Amino acid sequence: MSSCRVGLRLAACLLNISEARKKCIVENIAKAALLERNGQRHPEISVLNVFSDPEYNRSVITIAASIDELGLAENLVLSVPGCSVFLFGEADLPEKRPLVQRRKQLGWFTRRDFSTLKSDLGAAPARRCGLTACFRAL
């Protein structure tokens, strides 16, 4: 991501995907993150890394964007059916809860029934599949 603006505030997004064996699915989700609603490439959004682990069938896509572009989360929800978004840090307004606090409040590691979990944007996460995004201001 390049910008000539001094003091550009960035947000990071980690997309956790229950898919690693079908490369085209992971790539399509990464491409969807780069696009505006009109389908054009957004100049202030970059995919920094895509990590896939076929053995566990999990991928993580790391995205950076201007903090002003948190519409990225809304675009993902529209572009990727079943996408769940949870906000934390500066992106979690007005509470600005850290990731650890958010996970504890959600019962993220102890929960058995994910269908009752309310995401900030998008669908409730499925236990064994789907895409979950966490946004944090840097």
Automatic annotation (TrEMBL):
What the entry lists under Pfam families is as follows: FTCD_N
| InterPro entries hit by this protein | Formiminotransferase_N, Formiminotransferase_N_sf, FormiminoTrfase_cat_dom_sf, FTCD
Gene Ontology MF, one: transferase activity
What is the top-level taxon of the source organism? Eukaryota
Query: In this protein, which residues make up the domain named Formiminotransferase N-terminal subdomain?
Result: 9-135
Which PANTHER family does the annotation name?
FORMIMINOTRANSFERASE N-TERMINAL SUBDOMAIN-CONTAINING PROTEIN, FORMIMINOTRANSFERASE-CYCLODEAMINASE
Recorded protein name is: Formiminotransferase cyclodeaminase N-terminal like
Q: Name its species.
A: Bos mutus grunniens (Wild yak)
Q: What taxonomic classification does the UniProt entry list for its organism?
A: Eukaryota, Metazoa, Chordata, Craniata, Vertebrata
